[in-house]
Design goal:
This protein has helices at residues 3-25, 34-40, 63-72, 111-116, 129-144, 149-166, 170-180, 184-196, 202-205, 214-226, 230-240, 244-249, 253-260, 265-281, and strands at residues 30-32, 54-58, 76-77, 84-87, 96-101, 118-120, 125-127. The chain is an alpha+beta fold. α5 crosses α11 (230-240) and α10 packs antiparallel against α11 (230-240).
């Protein structure tokens, strides 16, 4: 266990607890994501995984109200970030950072999770275990264009807990959700690696196998899983949800103001060039 990492994670979870309590008082549903979700559910102990911020999910319609709630407990917008809020730490200690998500790239309709993808957790609303598994499996591919050892370990722990709670029915449930959300091409790259490591049986892995034209998409996700490339990092979200291309090129005014400090026509016109530069020159 890394003691410095443990101290930071305990601080971040404390900040999450404050934000959750304030959100609850304001009638806002709040769900932990990624590392915070895994820690809250006890799949990791503080200091085992490493976490630099807290990711949370809110309903899109509650975004403005939640930001106001965060400001009420000492948070402020993080410079050069469209979604993160920070609260300075005492002395030289690092700030508490909360990254707000009003949508998830692997699910087109965010409301579906709030309608049937949540359950009571030890600290509040939590993703159910099949949805948590899919979230930690595909997030690195869709946001970073890669599959990391930490991603695979997150998946192992989520699956282990899922089987412990739901028995072998966990895998069919996760596979049904993967099919419903159109995630088989993305999650297949992770399932193949879990299969090779003996973390899932062949008959269970087969439930996630891409079908028909999904196999074409799956080939791109597999290529990224083998070796990261900036081009694939930008391509994979568009393969998963073509509508994200428009969001990339023409983000909402709020995003432009937070990220660039302006939402003028010139800044919007420069946005595609910035993205192209990221693809061509980022290493």
């Amino acid at each position: 266990m890394n003691k410095d990492a443990a101290a930071r994670e305990i601080m971040l979870l404390g900040a999450l607890g404050e934000a959750r309590a304030a959100a609850f008082a304001a009638g806002i549903e709040l769900v932990a994501l990624k590392g915070a979700a895994l820690l809250e559910l006890g799949l990791y102990k503080p200091g085992e995984r490493g976490m630099t911020d807290v990711d949370v999910l809110v309903r899109r319609g509650n975004l403005a109200a939640f930001e106001k709630t965060l400001a009420g407990v000492g948070f402020e917008p993080m410079p050069d970030s469209a979604d993160a809020w920070l609260r300075p730490g005492p002395g030289n200690s690092p700030p508490a950072i909360i990254d707000i998500h009003a949508g998830l790239w692997h699910i087109e309709n965010n409301e579906e999770l709030f309608d049937w993808g949540l359950e009571p957790g030890p600290e509040g609303l939590a993703l159910n275990l099949p949805d948590l598994f899919l979230h930690v499996a595909v997030h690195p591919l869709l946001h970073h264009g890669e599959v990391t050892p930490r991603c695979l370990e997150d998946c192992r722990r989520a699956a282990r807990k899922g089987v412990e709670v739901h028995g072998r029915g966990f895998w069919p449930s996760a596979a049904r959700k993967a099919g419903f959300y159109g995630l088989r091409p993305a999650v297949w790259a992770v399932i193949r690696r879990l299969l090779a490591a003996g973390d899932i049986a062949p008959e269970e892995a087969a439930l996630f196998s891409p079908r028909g034209t999904e196999k074409i998409k799956a080939a791109f996700f597999e290529k990224a899983a083998r070796k990261h490339s900036t081009l694939l990092e930008y391509l994979l979200p568009a393969l998963q949800r073509p509508g994200l291309v428009a969001d990339y090129l023409l983000p909402q005014k709020r995003f432009m103001l937070r990220r660039y400090g302006s939402a003028s026509l010139l800044v919007y016109l420069l946005r595609p060039l910035r993205l192209l530069g990221s693809v061509l020159f980022r290493r």
